[in-house]
Write a structure and sequence with these properties.
281 residues, alpha/beta, 11% strand
Length: 281
């Protein structure tokens, strides 16, 4: 079995980052059968590690998923997080801002969705839409979206300084694979409700989005909050990679269940035996 090296997915040299050098079909020598076997282990490991995270309540994990339409953000959440207790996990999808949200700074609605300590939070799209869509469709001046790179880095630094671990995944698919998935959606009665004319219109801006993604990864892959570029033309490999990184990250926390409260521990020595009510009552 070929072991996956997560550092090969992480963008450690952002100043030299070029998206064209990352093959969306690459499987890093990992076979489909091996990935599926290990993926099953990851699901169970993640469930156990999530329980530890919740019990300790010392830190939070924020998972950011970005990618072109049909890259598999929903599918990644469904498969990777299938064993996680929903009581300790939240998923936030950032759609077009409401009037109230537009009346605040662009990070206002994002900060409110950051997971509390002990929880896992997943962003299905995120604050990075404000340097993607706004740039591609020229919704704000260039000076505005350019200044947001530094604001995002400062925001994420605040989070990591306050015990929020951030994992950012760019689900990287090819234009041909996206077109294939769009057509498959139209043919499948269980999926064609997802199809939207806007999806096909956005394909005209493919190159612009690739340029925008390259810029944001270059500007915002930091030591404390790095970007991982996940080859996603193969869904099974995409799920395997994300689960691998999440599990390895949680394992690195070296978590332990808290020791029992001394008062509670004493209950087993007779403190919990039923007693006689006093005469005063």
């Amino acid at each position: 079995m070929v072991a996956l090296h997560a550092d090969r997915l992480r963008v450690d040299s952002p100043n030299k980052f070029e998206l064209k050098k990352w093959d969306p079909k690459d499987t890093h020598g990992v076979s489909k059968s091996d990935a599926r076997d290990e993926m099953k282990q990851h699901v169970q490991q993640l469930a156990n590690l999530h329980e530890l995270l919740y019990a300790e309540s010392r830190r939070a994990l924020l998972i950011v998923l970005q990618g072109m339409d049909a890259a598999g953000k929903d599918g990644t959440i469904k498969h990777v997080m299938s064993g996680v207790n929903p009581q300790g996990c939240s998923v936030t999808s950032f759609k077009q801002p409401s009037a109230t949200e537009l009346a605040h700074d662009f990070l206002w609605r994002v900060h409110a969705a950051v997971p509390a300590k002990g929880f896992i939070g997943i962003f299905n799209r995120s604050h990075y839409e404000d340097v993607l869509v706004t740039r591609v469709h020229r919704l704000v001046p260039k000076s505005t979206w350019q200044s947001r790179f530094d604001q995002i880095n400062a925001f994420e630094k605040i989070l990591t300084d306050n015990d929020v671990c951030i994992l950012k995944f760019f689900l990287h698919i090819s234009s041909g694979e996206q077109e294939k998935r769009f057509k498959e959606r139209l043919k499948d009665p269980q999926k064609n409700w997802k199809a939207s004319p806007a999806d096909f219109r956005e394909r005209r801006f493919w190159d612009d989005y690739q340029t925008a993604y390259e810029a944001l990864i270059s500007r915002c892959s930091t030591k404390d909050a790095p970007w991982y570029v996940i080859p996603s033309d193969h869904k099974w490999f995409r799920n395997y990679c994300v689960s691998h990184v999440v599990v390895k990250t949680l394992e690195s926390f070296d978590m332990h269940f808290p020791k029992v409260n001394p008062e509670v521990a004493g209950m087993e020595h007779g403190g919990n035996k039923p007693g006689k009510m006093s005469d005063a009552t």
